[in-house]
Design goal:
Layout: E1 6-15, E2 18-28, E3 33-37, H1 44-52, E4 59-64, E5 67-68, H2 74-79, E6 82-85, H3 97-109, H4 117-134, H5 149-162, E7 167-171, H6 179-192, E8 197-201, H7 205-211, E9 214-219, E10 222-227, H8 229-233, H9 236-243
Parallel strand pairs: 3-8, 3-9, 6-7, 7-8
Antiparallel strand pairs: 1-2, 1-4, 4-5, 9-10
The chain binds adenosine-5'-diphosphate (ADP).
Adenosine-5'-diphosphate (ADP) binds near residues 18 and 38.
Protein name: Urea ABC transporter ATP-binding protein UrtD
Keywords: ATP-binding, Nucleotide-binding, Transport
Pfam families: ABC_tran, BCA_ABC_TP_C
Length: about 240
Amino acid sequence: MSGRALYVDGVSVVFDGFRALNNLSFIIEPGELRAVIGPNGAGKTTMMDVITGKTKPTAGIVKFGDTDLTRLDEPRIAMLGIGRKFQKPTVFDALTVFENLELALKAVRGPIACWKWRLAAEQRDRIEAVLREIGLSERGQDLAGLLSHGQRQWLEIGMLLMQEPELLLVDEPVAGMTDQETEHTAALLARIAGQRSVVVVEHDLEFVRALGCKVTVMCEGTVLSEGSIDHVQNDPRVIEVYLGR
Ligand code: ADP
């Protein structure tokens, strides 16, 4: 897998004297799937805000390959191929599943590209490939408003895939999903990583186990523990944080 690694190095974020991130460091390798867990207030959202340029660090550096992200604004960082999926899906209910994906493609390529029939055919193939990837091939012509909660989340992941990100940040994808939808989501994220890096912030530890990837545990704005799910679940520091002192 070629591609760029993400380096978060000694990052601190201070809001009015409060340290939301405190010397946070980790590396995501190209094509890696990584889960990030941690109690409320651990700094997970702030970490994603710093990577996408929404929040600028008070200290430290974030690099994507050789590019220093801390010098760039949000749109420039998105254009580098860093996509973010927020917890709440933002699909268009009144459009079909296919049209939602088409819209996501147009947002990247611009309307001019869509005038050319060759690109239109290529576009159709690409949308169908993404429909297969997210497991919604049978639902392409249905209105997005008719999808289940889980299917809407997959559609939104598909909309991000249309933009061919190199790094995808995914915030709590399985909140409110059925067990079956949760299983599908774990398989989907494991499948789409490899061609791009995927960082998943999640509370559901059973889901994190199903992802079968390296886990970073954050607490008080820094990394508390890192390794396999078995390693971190048996780490006394993690047990202390989760079970109370
Ligand atoms: P998590 O996503 O792990 O729950 P957050 O990154 O949302 O954690 O928050 C980390 C800490 O930073 C929390 O204590 C939160 O209250 C604080 N925080 C986050 N954003 C701001 C802000 N804009 N101003 C002040 N404090 C903030």
